[in-house]
Fold this sequence. Notes:
Helix content: 25-40%
Order of helices and strands: EHHEEHEEEEHH
Largest sheet: 4 strands, antiparallel
Strand order of the largest sheet: 4-5-6-7
Shape: globular
Amino acid sequence: MLLKISFTSNNGCDFPAAVERAWKSGIINLSTVSAMDLRYGYFIYPVDFKVGGQELLTAAQLPLVDIMYTLSLSVRDLGSNGSAEIDFTENSYVIRIKLQNDRVKFTPSHGAGAVAPECDLAEYVSEVREFVTSGISHLVGGYPVFEDNRVIDEMKELAEM
């Protein structure tokens, strides 16, 4: 396998301190938290993204829901127009993705190697779906009420699961 995308939940933060207090006291209900809030303030975990031995992300502290959305959108965009971007609100780093025949080529905005890493399209789609499935499973496993949040259905639809 040339591609691996993963997260580590035990080194992360599920909620910012103020949100955790509100959640524990019942003020915040995970079944109704907006996608925007989930994408930028919750479930911040180290994420690794490696293609062909080149690390595009190494323990990057990212909101899990946001990276799941972004990766799912990249799969959709590759299918519709042959290119996509994985970008990050918190910094200027961008990973550009281009479909060439049945290969996906990754070009990071900084820290690029001499040769852009690549993998088969089928492998990329499979790994993104596995990452999203794992993320959803983790979120719902830790917070069963989260399964009622429309965000779960949106992510499944984006990843076509």
